[in-house]
Amino acid sequence: MKKKSAPALKSTLNIAHYLKSQKEFIDSYLANFLPPLHTDPKSLHEAMHYSVFAGGKRIRPILILATGEALQIDRNNLIHLACAVELIHTYSLIHDDLPSMDNDDYRRGQLTTHKKFGEGMAVLTGNALLTHALKKLSEIPSTPKRPSLVHELCHAIGSQNGMLAGQAMDLETQGKQFSKEHLEQIHSAKTGALIQASIYCAGLIAGTSQKILDNLSSFGCKLGLAYQIVDDILDIEGSSSELGKTAGKDSVHEKATYPALYGLKASKQFAMDLVNQAIHQIHDLGPPSKTLIELAHFISVRRF
Amino acid sequence: MKKKSAPALKSTLNIAHYLKSQKEFIDSYLANFLPPLHTDPKSLHEAMHYSVFAGGKRIRPILILATGEALQIDRNNLIHLACAVELIHTYSLIHDDLPSMDNDDYRRGQLTTHKKFGEGMAVLTGNALLTHALKKLSEIPSTPKRPSLVHELCHAIGSQNGMLAGQAMDLETQGKQFSKEHLEQIHSAKTGALIQASIYCAGLIAGTSQKILDNLSSFGCKLGLAYQIVDDILDIEGSSSELGKTAGKDSVHEKATYPALYGLKASKQFAMDLVNQAIHQIHDLGPPSKTLIELAHFISVRRF
Lengths: 304, 304
Hints:
By secondary structure, chain A is mainly alpha-helical. Chain A has one domain (15-301): Farnesyl Diphosphate Synthase. Chain A is 66% helix and 1% strand. In chain A, a hairpin with a 2-residue loop joins strand 1 and strand 2. The radius of gyration of chain A is 19 Å and the shape is globular. At the A-B interface, helix 2, helix 6, helix 7 and helix 8 of A face helix 2, helix 6, helix 7 and helix 8 of B.
């Protein structure tokens, strides 16, 4: 049987405008979602605000809101989840940038947290963002129909196939040979799992059916992997000014990446194929999923 | 009105034997509570097991079980909470020992996690223990009568008067003048809040009344502060072999401690007074609280 191709998209959405307006909406909530800036301990709260407002694209929370649009629920129902996920993402970046990890001085064109506040404070800042995100998430009550969001997200960022597993495998493989299977496992864990869980949790809050939840999970899994592959492509192709961080760091660290194993051209094709496969998974959602589909396409061709 | 004095205790409990047997019970659960040792990523799971089984006294989980005894519920109902709290405590120690924080090579007589597994892996190991603890805690469902344990514990270890606040204030005050009020604030946050929340959460699981919960909270608050004061006394008085870590580190770091501000004798008296005040708070619990009271006394006179 011939596989149905992804819907041919004639974009009517101005993606740049959409991203900007959603980012503004998210940022307006993030400031109050965080602990107040000028409360003790001031250094820690200042570092938390600095790190969160250091120019992030807010791709993960935007994906959460677009999933809500696809499932036809108001974005106000998802903003709590969206903010928590952005804090978790920021925590992972702060720790990734530490001298003992990737040792990056700049991120999004600004000094990394440890360069600005010192290494010890950067460790605490990451921890505090994670802890605060989970505390706020635990305020969304679980129900018999909705398992705990804390559980879903902790699994996605944990040591068993989650983000921390990916980061640890990254450390383990530096400078070593790695197989294609191993590479996919690292990428899916390091970046894919949190994106997948973000989208899945949006479905949980929307109270959608198990079938749609499963489809959203597959969509998020493939999209998350594509996102990391494009990240690795940009690390080679992008200039430092475009990326806002030091380009080419992955090759210095001899990290396991798709371009390193397959070359640039094949990696780009692979990312696009993955996005098309992802979009197939949410075909049943129909017209309301238009924005989510455009976002997925954007992810495969983004330049930053 | 004359204040009722703390009940005069004629100890019938062999505290050393009690601590040993409770530790064995907790350790037998901890091994299965953690992710399996030989699963990928092996380095991370090995570091998690190493850190948790590097000779901890298990004081916090033992306090949880003793609180359960005082409230007359079976310890099996509390072992999940007890294990989660021990993982959270271990996470805090791993990060505290990092070169960018206290820079300790030994803890409990064994190499610290970063000396054994490298600094990057130690950051991830702490993160993974915290994440796993909260994931497992989220499996205990909240009820209208029992608010989320994740929420309580995240607050206790967070940036707003919790453990991370204490750690950040510790960094802020190194080498600086500090007031008595500031010192109590740091200690209560850094060590007191997790001990307080552990005891409070045991009360929540037991389904006890709000009045008793409040009393347990006051008990935990005072006991937690006393615990940290004794820790600082031991840092000066204890030998490195007794402590299993480098003695005298706090004075090298010019940390805010009770002995530094009040001297050893007054600090010891202060710790004992706090424990007596703590014990007053749980007077209403009657004979079943005997073990908990003995544990509190032990904390004020411990040598390790």
